[in-house]
Amino acid sequence: MKKFTILIVAAGILLFSMRGAYALQSIDVTGDGRIDALDIKAILTNWLMSGSQSADIDENGKVNSQDAAYVLRDFGTILVSPSPSLLPSSSPQIAQEWSQHAHDAQHTSYSTQVVATPWKWKWSWNGPNATGGISSGKTSLPRNMQPVTGGGRVYVARGSGGVVALNETNGAVLWTASPGGAFNSTVAYDADTNSVFAVSANGRLYKLNANTGTTSSSFAGNGTSPLPLPPGIYQNEVFFSMGSSVYALNKTTMQLIWTYAAGSPVHTPPAYSPSRNRVIVATQDLYVHAINNANGQQVWRVKHTTLSGGDPGSSNANAEVSNGWPVIAEEHGYALIKLRLNWQTLWETYQPDNTAIRQFLSANPVHQALQVIDLDDGSKPFIANIGHGGFGDGGYMPMGFQPAVKKFSDGSEVAYVLARGGTIYDPRWDSHLGELMLDDTTIPGFQAGYFRFISFASAPISGDTFLTDEQPFISAAGDYLFANHWEASMFSLRITDRSAARGLYTNQIQTQALYTLIESQDGGNCNNTTHFVTGLLQNTRGYANPLGGFHIYCNLGNVYDSYWTNYAGTVISNGMIIIVSTSGCVVALESGSLTGFAPGLPVAVFQLFGQIGETLAALSQTTLPVTETNANSVIDYTEAQEFIGQTKTVTGTTAYIFNNGKSVLLGFADPHQGYFKIQIPKNSWEQFGSTFGTQLGRNKENLFTEGKTVKVTGKIVPYQGDPVIYVSDPTQLDVMK
């Protein structure tokens, strides 16, 4: 860290006084045609080295802060001039409403509607108050919940809080309906019947009057489920999954058309293919089912993995389909099914080359995270070059992104994905936005299952790279892509050049950064009216965006940990960009002039601390809650959730100990399930001995082993849905037996 600190201070001073004129080609240290964070990395790697070095830009015989200053001065410059796009633009706008989960019954997560920039804040709900704090009555929202629109309203499923209808113009609550059970699934709006269809965890599908929220009718499924299982609507039918069955109902009469018995709990919502007239679901046992919509009979049932259905944890024997959804690529006749794999897949190294990735996944099929299945016969046409990632931490890797499918005006079709390839620091640092090929002909040289790299200079770590355990969720509209991270609730960009020559790691599809939305603007320069900041966006780390962006809260840091939903998403509907953040806030943006914004830092300082600061913050992991040691009572670990914000002594028997390289976690149950845990951050490991923390993985520590009863004292704080005590001093922890 000393090297980084010296570079930041020295380069920052030199940046404003330098006069040297050097060719951009020499400032592009890595020679990749761009002046970016990879050039900074090259300078750090060769820091203070003498002799002939490409990183010695000013050729003074030593790599130092002067060289870093030249890179910072020209940061973001692209040396390779983009050629005009040779491929078609998006098809004409058709659907104006995002009225059901993932936009349509095919779950494409794609809208033809584009909301013209600039954007301005329209309203928010379940988020900030007038001063940027927490609004009264704020709650978390269910995982995977997307706002949908119709009839001048925005509809939100609020779990045990029922279904809420908001005024589309100002976000005011129009009605709340709680007909029974918890509503953990995105609802669907139907204009023909002016109804909202909502699946409850009690197993019942409710049909609500969209004007009033009153129940028109309901249908009882077989079983119950807490999973997100949103209904789908196509023409006169509504489909939904519950228990081990799939149902098709007449949306007007709510009469049953057919029932399909899957033989295993159905863990995904149904997706519908109009061209095949088939309904697709996946079950707990990892089988994918195709149902003939004409009669409810099975067309095929297949399983293209050797893994077993179950919580993968750190085991490569299991996988899950729950918390995902089937996606239909209608033009090609494929169903795309994402698998949740185990945490250890994070540490595999993916080369930035499709041929090498295909070879690796062919030899190691347990790492194939995205299944592609032919709708006609259930066969597997090719391997998708997609590894696993998501909002992971501490041995837990959840279900990550779901593909977004776009059809172009010429009939060609691609899927937008998160793909792995090209490590920067360690194997976690290798995720990129990608364009997945679904055939061998769309782009010459790219086979079906290969992906094309999409440049994204606003990614939260370094240049185009996301951490694989921070992969965002994605959606698309026209030429716009939206990436929803757990802290930066929305990144947005416009694809400007996807010509056939683009797509390689060294020559990526070109984009223009649009606006960013972060959970909290930390550091004071907030505007709680427009919520817009022109300079540095800062939420526990910096987010670089030359256009600036929006913030939800002001000076609340990791507010998302208190309301963790494990999901964030963007929908585009009726002239609005609607974001649901990881803290459960719903934000609506619209096209309009940006006025009354908070001033930011100068561009030069912004570049310095925006891009470089992001990397250093992610590397250092030094910002931690302050623990207290004057506990006045002892509680069991099962009670910890009730005492967040208080100092307590907590006891329990460890069931899960894991070192992820950033922290040693002592868990009393699987992480990220709402149970108490202890974290010993890396910067405190030396307090526990020279060998502590040296071995990554599960149950590798000598001081603490699974099955031991421990007692820990400190302040209980939230972290990604779990109550946690951070330990920096060995005296806080006592192994009792």
TrEMBL record:
Swiss-Prot/TrEMBL keywords: ATP-binding, Helicase, Hydrolase, Nucleotide-binding, Signal
Signal sequence range: 1-23
Residue span(s) of domain Pyrrolo-quinoline quinone repeat: 144-216, 235-349
Molecular function via GO: helicase activity; hydrolase activity, hydrolyzing O-glycosyl compounds
Superkingdom as given in the UniProt entry: Bacteria
CDD domains in the record: Dockerin_I
Entry-linked InterPro entries: Dockerin_1_rpt, Dockerin_dom_sf, PQQ_b-propeller_rpt, PQQ_rpt_dom, Quinoprotein_ADH-like_sf, WD40/YVTN_repeat-like_dom_sf
GO biological process: polysaccharide catabolic process
Pfam families tied to this protein: Dockerin_1, PQQ_2
Protein name: Nucleic acid binding, OB-fold, tRNA/helicase-type
Organism: Candidatus Gottesmanbacteria bacterium GW2011_GWA1_43_11
